[in-house]
Amino acid sequence: MSNPISKRQFFGYLMAAACAAAGGLHSFKTYANKFIFMEPSGNPGPGIPGRYSKESPYYVVTPKGVQCKICPNNCILREGLESICRTHVVKDQKLYTIAYGNPCSVHVDPIEKKPLFHYLPATLSFSIATAGCNFACLNCQNWEISQRSPTETENTELFPRQVVEQAVKSGCKSIAYTYSEPIAFYEYTFDTARLARARGIKNLLISNGYINEKPLRDLALYLDAANINLKSFSDDIYARLNGGSLQPVLQTLKILKELGVWLEITNLVVPSWTDKPDMIAEMCAWLMNNGFADTPLHFSRFHPLYKLTGLPYTPLSILEKARDIALKAGIRFVYIGNVPGTPAENTYCPKCKKTVIERRGFNISQNNLKNAACKFCNTPIAGVWQ
Amino acid sequence: MSQKNAIRIVLFGLGFLTLGFQVLLMRGFLVTCYGNEMVIGILLAIWMLLTGFGSWVGRFSRFTLLHHPALMLLLVIPGIWPAPALFLLNFLKAVMIPAGSMAGLEDVFIWGAIVQAPFCLCTGFLFTVLSTLPGTGNPSASYAWESGGSIVACLAVNFIFLGWFDLFTGALLLSVLWFLTVSVSMSLRRGWIQPGVVLAFAAVYLLTIFRAGLAEQSENLLFPDQKVVSDRVTPYGRISVTRSGDQFNFYENGLLLFSSGNTINSEEAVHPAMVQRPDPLKVLMISGGFSGALTEVMKYHPGQVDYLELNPELIRVVAQFTSQIKSENIRTIRADARRFLIHSPEQYDVVIVNLPSPATLQINRYFTAEFFEEAYRHMTPNGVIALFLPTASDYISSRAADLNSVICRTLKHRFRNVLIIPLEKNVVLASDSALTLDIPGKIRSLGIQTSWVNPDYLDISQLRERSGYLEKNLQPTGKLNRDFDPVAVHYQLAWWLGYFSFKPLVAIALYTLLFLILAFSQNRLTTGMFTGGFTLASIEIILILAYQALFGYLFSMIGAIIVIFMAGLTIGSWLGPFLATRWIERRSVIRSKVDPEAEVRENSLNGFNPALRQLYFRIQIVLAVFSMVIPVFLLFIRNIAGFTIGSHLLTGLLCLFPAFLIGLEYHLSVTIPQDRINRAVSGSYSADLFGSAMGAFTTGVILIPLAGVNASCVLLGILNLAGAWILYNGRRK
Ligand code: SF4
Q: Do A105 and A151 form a contact (C-beta atoms < 8 A)?
């Protein structure tokens, strides 16, 4: 065809466009971030420890880079690289957290919401989280903070001392490290827990339990209770659904129990992933064999969230089946969560089967507990009740 | 029968097959990828780019006979592809991403390319080849025949296939029709041997597909560990019902609408609004009532509940699998709510817009200032309206804050009080009268029995704290969400993109590069087709959006708009030769009177017919002006003409006119150059498709959500002026 725009002309236009693009890149990027994709601006980028940073106590310098030893991801980092949890950076061969004193989520919640049913029931918990997580669950309900770095979220300045002050001021009996993943903001959790212990405030770890032994044992000195999310009983599912592995979580359960931290376990029943009766039975057998018969187990209903919106809610019949399996295996306190109004929110005496604590939502409507035992048959009910 | 007529029959069939498969495949993608407009925009763009590329490659073909064996083989490929493509789509999803998870943008790109490539490349190639075989006649007539096939397919698929068949049966039917078309056209020319082979092959193929049970296998891949108990493709979307345990799950286009026995959603949808006006005479609920929400509404004993549901099939299917509350006070109305409100004289105490957040332009119509205005006119002085947005109670990101802010701002523009309540979703209430946050307290004092929305689960002090947190993060000033400036869609899209660690700069750079390559690889004539295709696709999107915003969604009208566009293309390309000849004659007469030498001089320039080039140039200018004045027409329809026959006729003309011009332009672009015909056809057709691809994506996904309809129209005008300038500039060199 005659007279197309010549190649020279074409490349001329392209060059002009490239120059314009290069020249205007800064303002263009600002525009794109601010108006098109709404990234927050003004935060320090990764790799720049600043006001909300602290050197981490758990790292080794290796020839490959600085290796974080907080969780089994064992990230090896160099300057400018982002850790898996997005909260750790390296500067001058040192590992820093950038999630320290800058929580993005601060609320007061009933302790039952964590869920902790056998620990100081009907009390309030001062709950904090920074951005970041060492997992990447496809169904995360808090993905806007867990899958972000603290440099990307809108944060509040609240250093450990202030957290404790606020918890006291708001009448909370405990501080919950929750919402995203406290292992990702380990240093902040640790320092706050230490100060809280000194002030008589309890510390609750609401976590995926994916942590190395040493940091866990150190932290457990200040922990009072924990709810560990045992996401499945399969390494393969841990890898594909969460980006983790099973064994470290099982080890965490054992260590917390050994160190006397009050423990409850949550298992989210995700349709077509973690709802297989065989796997649930295997999990319950392990719990029984390792001394967790008195550890409350919460089967939680899945809601289609984040990337798993193609799945339905967990059918109630599946949750009830899971509960039956656990009770039959010998676990004494088994609950169903995220299903309002279910009688499986109540605590039943494992011996006489009567209702010891009747719950309606986050309230207790009937309490038949006397001296930490069933008032009908005097069977001790495991928990920290006062 | 002459080769010319045989080819025209095949071209007609090709148009039918192409558009029919496109409609079915997009429905398939909607389910597999939970499609929003961005996904569909991307897929359509890939479709047109691939077809355009196939057509461009067609310029190198050397076929001279329709019954050439290699050409026969090529004719078979598009016929065998539709049903396996639908299966392949679900298969790719099952193997490439984790079960139940959402497809990312890169998945959409990859699947779109894999599933569409064989078909699109082949049909694009075939179009060029068939249009340029010796004896085919005028290529613009070929374009008209192909468009004619598309028109019939649009009518047939949308009004017959989608009502009666599932996707697989529809796809197989398309294959049957295609094989018959090819065989008949061959038999008319060369006897029955070759057609017999084609038909025998088709029969074996169809049998194999049925035996393989592709349809069931495909469904199982889509809903892992669930039993599909019903799957219907309706004009409004695909409704699938699955059973898991004792629970039924209802999906529309792959998105879970609700599961049976889920009280949280239905209670949250109803009680926050109802407790504000606990003695309602009339309640309006838009969609989502059969999930249990209507049962919750009836706890307040309203005098009348008008329940509006667009898709009658959804009503039927839900009733089939769940027990529904029966009351003579509930009036179920099968209509689009905006359309309904135009004519309704009713006044409501409570309006519940029980829809998902504004992820698409279609849903966004219920979140705009214009809709709030309309709803306000139908509300009693104390009336309250409720709608729902993505939750952000633990943390509100800037993306979520923007989306929540724009909707609250838009409501505040009309209502005195706006309240945002963070529950499982954010419940947004608006009214001219006072609103209370103490939902749990009210529920208790009214004695309403609920299992979730009550003081046991919702603590008023925590509600206050979290509502206050949200309020604090909302921006009070900024744009409003409007019908023709749907900024909420853009915010929702940005929020959704946040799922995928989306890199905006990379995407923008890639898009810009593709646009530049496509735009600058055109010559001055095909530039016109490129900008023309871009404009037409954009105008189509704008007018469909405008119609829905002005008069409500009506499936038959949207279908009619698309058909009018295609009719315009057909008429333009059909009348092209006649009009061009008339133009040349007229111009020659005038010219020869003024300057007898002019014609000779201009003809020597580049071998172009100057009269036709001038016509082409003028069409570009007219298109530019037309694009820029569309907002004026829309303003006229909205503010003066209203919902009248005149408005509908005007809308029809607005569709027909630019399509006619593009059809005419196509004729000119393949006629003006005295070049090899297959190069001209492939150049123009591919330019048209490239332009349409970029137009559909740019306007639907970027321009309208970011800049609104008016600015988009102006930009379209500028684009066409640029096309005209390139044509003009080329003449002078
Ligand atoms: S805490 Fe973070 S940086 Fe450390 S190993 Fe785990 S993921 Fe990596």
A: no
Q: Could you tell me the distance, in angstroms and rounded to a whole number, from the CA of residue A300 to the centre of ligand 1?
A: 27
- Using one digit for the tens of pLDDT, what is the confidence trace for B173-191? 999 999 989 888 777 666 6
Residue the block writes with tokens 């329940």: B307
What one-character-per-residue DSSP string does B238-284 give? EEEEEEETTEEEEEETTEEEEETT-HHHHHHHHHHHHTTSSS-SEEE
Q: In what order do the strands lie in the sheet with A363-367?
A: A347-348, A355-360, A363-367
Per-residue pLDDT tens over the stretch B75-87: 888 999 999 999 9
The number of the ligand 1 atom at minimal distance from the alpha carbon of A134 is: 7
- Helix (H) or strand (E) run with residue A126 in it: strand A124-129
Calpha distance A366→A225 (Å, rounded): 24
A81 Cα: distance to centroid of ligand 1 (angstroms): 12
Strands laid side by side in the A334-337 sheet: A105-110, A124-129, A174-177, A202-207, A225-229, A262-269, A297-301, A334-337
Q: Please name the residues between 198 and 217 in chain A that touch chain B, using a CB distance below 8 Å.
A: none
- The first and second tokens of residue B268, run together, are 């949250």
* CA end-to-end span of chain A: 88
For residue A351, what is the DSSP state? T
CB B702 within 8 A of CB A37: no
Nearest residue CA, atom 2 of ligand 1? A85
Hey, what are A137's tokens? 């669950």
Please name which of A307, A335, A311 lies closest in space to residue B247, comparing C-alpha atoms. Answer: A311
CA-to-CA distance for B652 and B657, rounded, in angstroms? 9
Count of Cβ atoms closer than 10 Å to residue B164 Cβ: 12
Q: How far apart are CA B512 and CA B508, in angstroms?
A: 6
| β-bridge pairing A297-301 and A334-337 | parallel
Cα-flanking dihedrals φ and ψ of residue A120, to 5°?
40, 60
Ligand 1 pocket at CB < 6 A: A 68, 70-71, 73-75, 83-85, 88, 134, 184
For this complex, say whether ipTM is above 0.95.
Answer: no
A-B C-beta contacts closer than 8 Å: 183
Report the distance separating Cα B82 and Cα B174, nearest Å.
8
Q: Which of A108, A183, A153 is nearest to B473 (CA)?
A: A153
Q: Could you tell me which of B517, B516, B540, B697 has the C-alpha nearest to residue B105?
A: B697
Strands A262-269 vs A297-301: parallel, antiparallel or unpaired: parallel
User: Which domains are seen in chain A, by residue range?
Assistant: 105-345 (3.20.20.70)
Distances (CA, A) of B157 to B46, B149, B558: 22, 12, 14
Q: Structure tokens of B466?
A: 């979290």
> pTM of the prediction?
0.82
Cβ distance A207 to A248 under 8 Å? no
Q: In the structure encoding, which two tokens stand for residue B526, read together?
A: 């095909």
Please give the distance, rounded to the nearest whole angstrom, from the Cα atom of residue A136 to the centre of ligand 1.
13
Q: What is the DSSP letter of A33?
A: I
Cα separation, B374 vs B388, in Å, equals: 18
Nearest Cα residue to B337 out of B374, B286, B293: B286
Verify whether the Cβ–Cβ distance B256 to A138 is below 8 Å.
Answer: no
pLDDT above 50 (res B72): yes
Is any Cβ of chain B less than 8 angstroms from the Cβ of A320?
A: no
Query: What are the pLDDT digits (tens) for B108-163?
Result: 889 999 999 999 999 999 998 988 887 777 777 888 888 899 989 988 887 777 66
Which segments within B404-562 are labelled E, that is strand?
Answer: 417-422, 426-431
Q: From the list B34, B394, B451, which residue is nearest A179 (CB)?
A: B394
Mutate to test the interface with A, among B39, B395, B684 (most CBs of A within 10 A): B395
B446: left (phi over 0), alpha (psi -120 to 50) or beta: alpha
Query: Which tokens hold the place of B71?
Result: 């050409």
User: What is the β-pairing status of strands B282-286 and B304-308?
Assistant: parallel
